[in-house]
Amino acid sequence: MLDAFKAGGDCHSRTAMIMYQHIREAVEEERVILEWHPQPGQEKPPVPLLKDAFGAERRKAKMLNFSIAYGKTAHGLARDWKVSVKEAKDTLKLWYSDRKEVLAWQMKQKELAQEKCEVYTLLGRSRRFPNMAYATSGQRGHIERAAINAPVQGSAADVSMCAMLEIDRNTRLKAETNSRPMTNSRPRVRQAGSRRKAHNHKPT
Asked: Coiled-coil region(s) at which residues (predicted)?
């Protein structure tokens, strides 16, 4: 998965290619391409892009990419896609077959939740699950999904926080920001609202 991100391009199209045999065949036969980087003088790709030729499948792949980050199960995906649980399970197996490291990481998060009743973000902030020891099977499933999602969402917040602190320490950026006039659209919004009220007002 890291190789795919380093290579850049359309992650969701790559997932669609993994999920669907007919898309893999189309890519292998060069009837479609994953990405296209136009060169000077080129206006359109030599063959259709995967995202254009197989838009519905790519949307499903995109949903799957984000759903797995949220720890969604085959049952949840089956409801979202309106397919059988077996079909959803088969699709998940295809996804994980190309990203075994993701499955290993998710299993580790579940083990942390079970053994330590907490998981951690990149900066070490914890999400605790004090009820794990005596949770029912349904509650345990909810906790395990949260144990997968919390480090993802929490680590994204860590990165954003670090970026904001770094920007605050950067004197050049602060000087540029302070020199720019701040615009305030709120008065215009109030005026627009007042005009709508006046327009809709009917004399009695």
From this structure: none
Global pTM value: 0.70
Split into its structural domains, the chain has a count of 2
Supply 19's token pair: 């999920």
- Domain assignment of residue 36, given as a range: 1-98
Q: Check: CB of residue 158 under 8 Å from CB of residue 146.
A: no
**Spatial distance between the Cα atoms of 5 and 15, rounded to a whole number of angstroms:** 12
| Structure token digits, residue 174 | 């602060």
Structure tokens that stand for 122 in this block: 């990149």
What letter represents residue 151's amino acid? P
Q: Evaluate whether residue 161 is within a structural domain.
A: yes
The model's pLDDT over 156-203, given as tens digits with 9 standing for 90+, comes to 999 999 998 988 888 887 777 676 665 554 444 444 444 444 444 454
Which structure tokens are listed for 91? 């699709």
If one counts every other C-beta atom within 10 angstroms of the C-beta of residue 178, the result is 8
Burial profile 57-81: b = 16 or more Cβ within 10 angstroms, e = fewer: bbebbbbbbebbeebbbbeebbeee
Residue type, 47: V
d(CA 46, CA 61): 24
Residue with tokens 């998965």: 1
